[in-house]
Amino acid sequence: MEKVIGVRFKRVGKVYYFLPGKIQFKEGDHAIVETVRGTEYGDVVIAEKEVNEKELAVPLKQVIRRATSKDDKKVDDNKLKEKEALEICGKKIEKHGLDMKLVDVEYTFDNSKIVFYFTADGRIDFRELVKDLAGVFKTRIELRQIGVRDEAKMLGGLGPCGRPCCCSCFLGDFDPVSIKMAKIQNLSLSPTKISGLCGRLMCCLNYEHQHYNETYRRMPKPGSTVNTPDGKGVVLENNAITEMVRVRITLPDETVDVKTFSLIDIKTTGKPVQNNTEDTENDTDLDEEIKSLLD
Q1: Separation between Cα atoms, residue 209 and residue 94, nearest integer Å
Q2: pTM to 2 decimals?
């Protein structure tokens, strides 16, 4: 077993593990560590814990030291420099006439490099811009093109639900989201209603997807014949949230009635009586149509 701590370098970013050595850390502390980008200042978000060495993908690096008040001040100074650099770079982009949108600027802790994040529709030839910026800041310059989801994560904002965007609050990584997730939850397939600020499908469509999948596996398919407390019937509709099933029942007097039963009160007796091939083909066409609108 190996004793490790979890360190995060951005407010909502990935957590990386380091070896604390003999230094005692608790959640909320700050640490100075060595990364591929050089010396970095990070927040300890996971206190010391023991992890099986087999679970560690690569050899972990040792923490250099605990951050001091001098380090904290340096981070604050870097944030002020970032605001200035953002303004300067914006003017340089306009000067060179580049079709790109500057999103954010980040100074490394040791000031050995400045990273400029931007979005653009295609490839941008920014070689002259890099030379110009290097002449101003006298350090290494990196321009990194990001996607619209990363832009929303950096800038933040309020989602359609009225709450701050999940990606800028607690999501460390972006999980895949598909149109089928909206379909299985019986949501509107209008792009304006299932898209976030980034213009892509909302991340929250993935939150309940597993619950819907597991529940629908236990529920009878529409068209199936089931036994109910009121006799045999054919399933019309399922509700995965309430686990209720709407069933069409033929009464002894040959009249038809539609009733709703709890899943635990019914039992499947036959296969679906309808063919869903045509619906599946229509769903595929709908997927392509909606994807084209979202892209």
Answers
A1: 44
A2: 0.75
